[in-house]
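Supplementary Text 2. Reproducibility record for the structural model of the 169-residue chain.

All settings were left at their defaults, and a single model was retained for analysis rather than an ensemble. We include the record here because the model underlies the residue-level annotations in Supplementary Table 4.
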Amino acid sequence: MTATPDLAPAPTAATPELFRSVFRRHAAGVAVITAAGERPVGFTATSLTSVAAEPPLISFGIGTSSSSWPVLSEAAYVGVHILGEHQRELAATFARSGADRFGPSTDWSSGPEGVPLLADVSAWLVCRVVTRVPAGDHRIVIAEAVTGAPSEAGRPLVYHQGRFTALRD
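Retained model, structure tokens:
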């Protein structure tokens, strides 16, 4: 009798590097989360999740070392922007450390509750923060949608294998 070869690689200890490597293989939708402060803040998130429809709740994670965290840690409302495949550069701007995220190249305005709203996104929500849950070096923010709109039809922007990409048929 011949042995069946192992099809999976040998397991290794769960390190941050292993964890990142595994999740690079997980395709995720791309969103930008914004909040109003002395200056507006925002960051690219691939952790956005629909939590419940009644009431309409979402969640996302943010690192406590993020430059956006000090404002997000106190914000009563956040903006949630679903990006389309044509918005790779916008996603990259909000993901890049030290970038002027709300500079001249970013089209945005102040929306309900003073939340910064990005123009030309596939959809957006303004959400009231319900709670912030400690989770390692991150916080999981749970927020209730209070208003929003699907702005444009089209394909979503996706993050996979460490890059922004589009869905293919």
